[in-house]
Amino acid sequence: MSASFAPISVILPFYKGDVPAYFDLALKSLFDQTLRADELVLIQDGPVSEEHLEVVHRWKSLMPEIVLLQRPINGGLSQALNSGIHKAKNEWLARMDADDICVEDRFEKQWQLIQKRPELDILGSWIVEYDESMTKVLGERRLPETHKELLAYAKWRCPFNHMTVMYRKSALEKLGHYKDYGAVGDDYELWGRFLMNGFVGHTIQESLVHARTGSDFFVKRRRGLRYLKNELNEIRDLRNMGLLSQGHFAVHFLIKSIVRLAPVWLVKLVYSTLRRSA
């Protein structure tokens, strides 16, 4: 049976720190889609191993829709994403990470809703979080459904699961793409610009991506004063655009200070509490 395609460009950065075997499984999940994207933009962010390139070349022989964009120097996630967005040919772009797995009907379900709801500009879903081996479920990150609910939620937490979103390239071009806050999760501020500038969002109320969080997630998180300062720059911008009040900003300041500076056991406690209340 021949594959069915939709005019979607997947934006997928990878770098030397990604595990080639996980990268391979991520690409397999894109190949196994019931409705495939007709363009897959892989952004190589700096030098990578021969194993990474072997994964790319092997899948490119099966998926000629792969476009490899090679950046000679690692510039970080935001710069890699912006270069991929610029390269993409389609209006609708889909995000994907190099170690996660899409369920097989992710694109089909998102594309069907986009056809039914032409007013949408950004569309995400829930995620299931797994351990490193993708055998143990650690939790599910559920987010509100409607634009109004997402806007209210965004005052307290990031309103979209980044690896699940599909968004309009034209909206990104109007908003100015991703800002670079020093590798601390630069998507939150972008979602704020979407929601505060009249672009309509929605979340499908099921998990369409399996995220490889890992049992050592808290140990590997970037920590220290430098990362806290970068993250505070992001929430200041969220406050300045009118999304966060001074009270919201104070709560964010406290939580982010704990996450970046506190002992790992306390970070785990805060994170698990937030997950239970999501």
Please summarize what this structure is.
This protein has eleven helices and nine strands. The chain has 278 residues and is α/β, with parallel strands linked by helices. Strands 1, 2, 3, 4, 5, 6, 7, 8 and 9 form a nine-stranded mixed β-sheet that branches.
Your description of this structure?
- The protein has 278 residues and is an alpha/beta fold.
- The protein folds into two domains: 5-215, Spore Coat Polysaccharide Biosynthesis Protein SpsA, Chain A; 220-278.
- It is 43% helix and 23% strand.
- The chain contains eleven helices and nine strands.
- Helix 1 runs parallel beside helix 2, helix 7 (187-196) runs parallel beside helix 9 and helix 10 packs across helix 11 (264-276).
The profile of the biggest β sheet is:
9 strands, mixed
| CATH topology label of the largest domain | Spore Coat Polysaccharide Biosynthesis Protein SpsA, Chain A
**CATH class category of the largest domain:** Alpha Beta
Count of strand segments: 9
From the structure provided, what is the oligomeric state, counting identical versus distinct chains? single chain
The arrangement of helices and strands along the chain is EHEHEHEEHEEHEHHEHHHH
> Which runs of at least 5 residues are low in confidence (pLDDT < 50)?
none
Shape-level CATH architecture of the largest domain: Alpha-Beta Complex
Estimated share of beta-strand residues = 15-25%
What is the CATH superfamily classification of the largest domain?
Spore Coat Polysaccharide Biosynthesis Protein SpsA, Chain A
User: Which structural class fits the helix and strand makeup?
Assistant: alpha/beta
- Coarse shape: globular
Q: How many domains, as an integer?
A: 2
Helix content: 40-55%
Arithmetic mean of pLDDT: 90
